[in-house]
Each structure stands twice: as C-alpha cells, then as structure tokens.
Write a structure and sequence with these properties.
By secondary structure, this protein is α+β, with helices and mostly antiparallel strands. It has two domains: about 80 residues; about 120 residues, no CATH class. Strands 1, 2, 3, 4, 5 and 6 form a six-stranded mixed beta sheet that branches. Strands 7-8 form a two-stranded antiparallel sheet. The radius of gyration is 17 Å and the shape is globular. The relative contact order is 0.16.
Length: about 210
C-alpha cells in the first residue's frame, strides 16, 4: 500500500479498474480523496514496468466497503504530461516559498537547498525537457553508478543531490500544503521510475 497524504482525512482507498487489454487490476493507497487515490494509481500504472494504459471503474473505501467514486477515469484524461506536471509543481513550490512557514522541512533540507532544487528543474525544463520523455512503462534501470550531481545555484553555492530524490522532496513538500495532480503524479514517477530519470539526466548532461 502506498501512503500519499499526511492529512487527518486520509483513509485507505482501493482503486479498481482494468488495462486496455481488459486485464483487471486494483491498488490500495492511503489518500485524502478518491481523486487523489485515482491519480496515484493511474500514475503508478503509467510508470511501472508491468503497467500501461489504465482505466478506473470505481474507488472503494476499505473501512466500509462502500463505493465512494463511480466515475470512469483514464490516464489520458486525469494525468498531466511530465513537463506540465513539473511546471505545475515548480509554480506551487515558488508560491509556498513566499511563506515558507506553510511547510515543515525534513532533516537535512534547508530553504536554500529547496531553492536550488527549483532552479535546477527550471533549468532542466528550459534546456533539456527531453529527459522527462519516455519514462512510462520502461524496464526499471538498476545501476551501481553514483547518480548524484553537483548543481551551482545563482548565488554560486554548490549543491550535491540525486535528481529523482530532489524531485521527490519537492513533491512531498507540496503535498504538505495541498494535494495536487502534479505532486501526486510526480511522487509516483519518482517511486516507479526514479532511476530511469536519473540516468536520463546524466546522459543529457553528466555532472553540473
């Protein structure tokens, strides 16, 4: 089971559906709403090696067994493109950083580091957006290579981090404020295809 939401309203929700082939599938996530649960499972199916185009038929509350959402949904109607998702997440984080008291930074992360993550992904979107393409349904890459990069921010400070981990941290911080399609989708991307994304970044740039 995947945990996405830290809100008090989060509950275990099972998303039931089927692939384009007709093969059934269901996944249970801890989410604050049926919509959040659907985004999570649809994204997981998009990026997982054994996934694919997925169609949701209903969402069931595990505690009661009741159907809480019967609206049919599909990946192409609910999920964003990866570039659009990252753009939306960055806009959300820039807004949050105008009043950083809205979030609790995890140990080892400071506001300067969060700002560097945002600058890095802004640069990546402008210079190498192709790194976000072709991440769906690929075999998960396993590498012994160090995926950490060194990024120099606008103030000249160096920051060492793994790109997928930085993206996951931004998604987690955004989810503290509110659940959005972009944050939930990118969290699933990092969990299922983070290593593929890291390799794509290194292939495009090597080390910054």
């Amino acid at each position: 089971m995947t945990t996405l939401s830290t809100t008090s309203s989060a509950r275990d929700l099972t998303v039931v559906g089927f692939y384009a082939s007709g093969t059934p599938f269901s996944g249970t996530v801890n989410a604050a709403s049926p919509h959040e649960a659907k985004i999570s499972v649809l994204a997981d199916r998009r990026y997982s090696e054994d996934g694919g185009d997925f169609y949701v038929s209903c969402v069931i509350d595990e505690a009661t067994g009741h159907v809480v959402d019967e609206a049919t949904s599909a990946s192409e109607t609910l999920l964003l493109t990866e570039v659009d998702a990252v753009e939306d997440l960055l806009q959300q984080m820039k807004s949050i950083l105008q009043d950083p008291k809205q979030i609790i930074l995890p140990e080892g992360t400071c506001l300067q580091k969060v700002g560097a993550f945002i600058q890095f992904f802004d640069h990546l979107l402008a210079d190498q957006p192709d790194v976000f393409f072709d991440l769906a349904g690929r075999s998960k890459l396993i590498t012994d290579e160090d995926m950490e990069i060194t990024f120099v921010d606008r103030k000249g400070a160096e920051h060492d981090f793994v790109p997928s981990e930085a993206l996951g941290r931004l998604a987690d911080l955004a989810l503290q404020r509110r659940s959005t399609t972009a944050a939930v989708q990118l969290k699933s991307l990092v969990q299922a295809a983070g290593s593929n994304f890291d390799v794509a970044v290194h292939d495009a740039y090597g080390e910054y």
